[in-house]
Amino acid sequence: MLDMKFIRDNPEAVRRGIKLKGEEDCLDAFLNTDRQRRVLIEEGDALKNRRNVLSTEVTKRVKTGEDISSLKEESRKIGERIAALDEERRSLEAKHHGLLLTIPNLPHPSVPEGRGAEANRLMRESGNKAKFDFSPKSHLELGETLGILDFARASKIAGSGFPLYRGAGATLERALINFMLDQHLATGRYQEVMTPFVANSAAMTGTGQLPKLGNDMYYCAEDDLYLIPTAEVPITNIFREEILREADLPVCYCGYSPCFRREAGSYGKETRGFLRVHQFNKVELVKFVLPETSYDELEALVADVEAVLKKLEIHYRVMELCSGDLSFAAAKCYDIEVWSPAEEKWLEASSCSNFEDFQARRAQIRFRREGTGKSEFVHTLNGSGLATSRLMVALMETYQTDEGTIRVPDVLKKYTGFGHITAEGGR
C-alpha cells in the first residue's frame, strides 16, 4: 500500500496514478475517512489530557478537604465520551484501512501511458519465428496425436481448464521445471525454497491479491486458506512482519509451485488447451532488495528469465507494460512473450515486476540501515522464471517435425532421457 502521509500530501498525483491504471477511484472516500479519523484522535487526545488534569486536581483537593464532586462528574462524562470516541474510531479505522487497501501502486514515471496492450512498448525481440515446409499443428493436436496431453479426461476429474499430462508429456513438463530451477540456482544469485501451496488471508493481503482479486482465487472458508495463484505469495510472505539486516540484502529466492486461478473475469476469452487454464506449474523468482537498487535488480531479473528462453531456443520478445496494463500492485512490469507458430500470436509466459515498497508496507517487511539504525521498507520484485503452460505451447509447436513428432530441446535431454516424442513415447 502507499504511505498515508504521501497520499495526504500528494492527492492529485495519487489520483492521476489511479486514473492511469484504470482503477476505481476511492481517493475522496479515503481522504474523508482519514480526516474524520484524525479529528476523533485529536478530540480523544484532548479529552485524555483534560482527564489527567482533573485527576491531578482531585488529588490536590482531597488533601485539602475540598469538594471534588463536580470534578468527578466531569471526569465521568469525559470517560464516557472517550469510550464512545474509541468505539467510533475503531469502526472508522477499519473502513479507513479497507479503503487504503483499494488504492493501487502508482506507475513509475518511466512507464508508458496507455489503457491497453496497444500502448505497451517493445523492448527487444530474440530469435526468429519458426518456419515450416508443412502446415504446423497446434499444441492440442500434437498432444492428442502423440498421447501426451488429455484435457478431455482431465475434465472428468476437475472440470474444464485443468491439464492431464501423460507419458512423455509428463516427463517433459517435469524436465522443464527441473531445468529452470537448475538454471537459476547456477547463477549463484538465488536460494531454492519450497513453500506451502496454500496461503491465508493475511498473506494474500500482503502481496496485494486481496481484496481486489478475491473472486479469482480458490478459497476454503473453513480454514481461511486460498490455493495460491502464484508462488510470489508464500515466498514474499516468508519475511512478513520481520526486519532484515541491510548486509543481508538482496535476498533472492526461486521456487516451484503449482498455481491455481479461477479466472472469474475471463468469460469469453480463449480457453483452448494451455492458453488459459485454472492450474499450471511455475518456477517463481522473488527478490527483497534495497530501494536504491530495485530498478537495476528488475533488469537483472528479466535477464535471468531471458536466459532460460535463449537456452531453450524459443523465439520471444520483451514488452514494457503501459500504465493501464500494469497489475494493481506493480510500479513497473515487463512481460516476456513467446511465439506460438500454430496460433500465430504472442503468448505471455512471464511477468517481471517491481513493486517498490508497496507490498512491503502491506506485509510490514523492513530492513535496518547499518549507519543510522533506522528501519525502512524493502523493495520487493518477482518474476515468472517461467510459467510452463504457455511455454509448453511454444516449445511443442516450435519443435514439431513434419512426421508429427516433437524434438526435445538439447538442454532438456539430460532431464527427459530422450530426444524425440513420438506416438510410441519418448525415444
Question: How is the topology of this model organized?
Answer:
Blueprint: H1 4-9, H2 11-21, H3 27-64, H4 69-100, E1 121-126, H5 139-146, H6 151-158, H7 168-186, E2 191-192, E3 198-200, H8 201-207, E4 219-220, E5 225-227, H9 232-236, E6 242-245, E7 251-260, E8 279-289, H10 294-312, E9 316-320, E10 332-340, E11 345-354, H11 358-363, E12 365-368, E13 375-377, E14 379-387, H12 388-398, E15 406-407, H13 413-416, E16 420-422, E17 425-426
Helix pairs in contact: 3-4
Question: Could you give a short description of this structure?
Answer:
By secondary structure, the chain is an alpha+beta fold. The chain has 13 helices and 17 strands. Strands 1-9-10-11-14-8-7-2 form an eight-stranded mixed sheet.
Structural summary, described in words:
- The chain has about 425 residues and is α+β, with helices and mostly antiparallel strands.
- The protein folds into 2 domains: about 5-100, Helix Hairpins (Orthogonal Bundle); about 115-425, Bira Bifunctional Protein, Domain 2 (BirA Bifunctional Protein, domain 2).
- Helices cover about 40% and strands about 20% of the residues.
- It has 13 helices and 17 strands.
- The protein is elongated.
- The model has no long low-confidence stretch (mean pLDDT about 95).
